[in-house]
Amino acid sequence: MKILNKLGLGLILAIILFSFSGGSAEAADFESGETFELEAGETVDDTLFVSATDILIDGDVNGDLFAAGQTVTVNGRIDGNLFVAGANITVNGEIAEDIFSSGGTFVFTGTADDIRVGGGQVTIKGDVAGDVMIGAGLVKLDSKIAGDAFIGTEELDVTESNRIGGKLSYTTPEQVQAAEDSASFAEFFEDEEVAPTTGSLIREWFVGTLLAVIGYVLIAWLLVRFVPGFLPRHDNALNNQLGSSVGYGLAGLIFLPIVIFIATMVMGILFGFGGAMAVAFTGFSGLALIWLLSPIVIAHWLGTQFTDMGMTGILVAVAVAAILITLPLVGGIFALASYVLALGSAFLARMDNNDSGSVSNDPIDPIDPIEKTPAAV
Question: Model's pTM, two decimal places?
Answer without folding.
Answer: 0.50
